[in-house]
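Q: what does this look like with nicotinamide-adenine-dinucleotide bound?
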Amino acid sequence: MKALTYHATKDVRLETVPDPVIEQDEDIVLRVTATAICGSDLHIYRGKIPDMDAGDILGHEFMGIVEETGPGVTQVKQGERVVVPFTISCGNCYFCNHALFAACETTNPGRGAIMNRKNVRAGAGLFGYSHLYGGYAGGQAEYVRVPRANSGPLVIPPGLADEQVLFLSDILPTGYQAAVNGEVGPGSTVAIFGAGPVGLMAAASARLLGAERIFMVDHHAYRLRFAAETYGVEPINFDEIEDPAAQIIERTDFRGVDCSIDAVGFEAKGSTLETALTTLKLEGSSGKAIRQAIAATRRGGTVSVPGVYAGFIHGFLFGDAFEKGLVFKGGQTHTQRHMPRLLEHILAGELQPEAIISHHLPLDQIVRGYEIFAQKQEDCRKVVLTPSGPSAAAGADPLPLAPGA
Ligand SMILES: NC(=O)c1ccc[n+]([C@@H]2O[C@H](COP(=O)([O-])OP(=O)(O)OC[C@H]3O[C@@H](n4cnc5c(N)ncnc54)[C@H](O)[C@@H]3O)[C@@H](O)[C@H]2O)c1
Ligand SMILES: [Zn+2]
Ligand SMILES: [Zn+2]
């Protein structure tokens, strides 16, 4: 089959690799009908995620048709159309029983990403996300092995197109969890840093939950324009306004917002000093976005962090957070927890995540897709890829093909 493989920084290739097979009782093999490129894939693409091997298959946002099931699979059947969460979770460990699926302690044989970890177990394995997270092959491919299929894949009812539900795999639950973690509710004021797909899904979710005012900070005018038109955000372009947090405070009666959402993470555009420190690997992360988020939040408010961080952060003003009495919440998304509810919202017409798609490409053009998304060319917001072959249209009948046939 064809799959997108990692080789080195900015060197990803569409290659022919062996078809996946059932390895464990609870595995399924999925024929991928739609997949996407995530901002998290860009961290790998830019060489910022350790423990990648040449030939690793990328991709953690995908859906498709169940092609084959292992003998222990009870929750999905051959021929069903499913969306697969990016977090691989067992469904019955201590953390899964608390609906903390990203913390599943049985699916990641890798070391995980905690630096000062003592002997704590690693969190959940992730598809296509380095050997730190288990080294699982990803879904930017024609076929993918999905382990733990009793605790992940969500069956999609007929009548919905792939694009309407594909983002249930990651960015929609991620944006939603960010808003819920930020305790966004009717009347809330929210500041979202980052107008990428995660920031946009956070804006859609904040609106759904009743937010009254949403500020959105980025420097790509086309992304801010889309967010203003689609979700009614108040855009702030940090190329034009040097200190967005100061602006947000002025516009909220000198208090700040109830909740800030950092949908940027550790590659935030920041000071030259921080860029140098992270390049020299003296610091793991740029602190620009999280510092702005802390500054923009009112006393007693919440800073919600879906953006990915790693290791040390430069200039993390914990004293300011203490003085303001801020609450912090973040982490990888507990995807499985939110998927059923979000599917209901899509069915009810209350969420249209597909609105953010700017590029539909065949899988054959995925390398170009990475370039377009990474370099923000052609006003790119989100790239969705369709492996060639049988139609991925709503309710399409699955073809009885063996993987790779
Ligand atoms: N927690 C999770 O489970 C989870 C899931 C998916 C994605 N993520 C993470 O969310 C983050 C965003 O993902 P995405 O797909 O939207 O990526 P993206 O790269 O498309 O978007 C990031 C946006 O942030 C903007 N930005 C950069 N520096 C900024 C700054 N200082 N202030 C404000 N905006 C700034 C960029 O211009 C860009 O538009 C990434 O770190 C990604 O890894 C986390
Ligand atoms: Zn992702
Ligand atoms: Zn578990």
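The domain at 2-170+334-386 is CATH 3.90.180.10 (Quinone Oxidoreductase; Chain A, domain 1). The longest strand covers residues 28-36.
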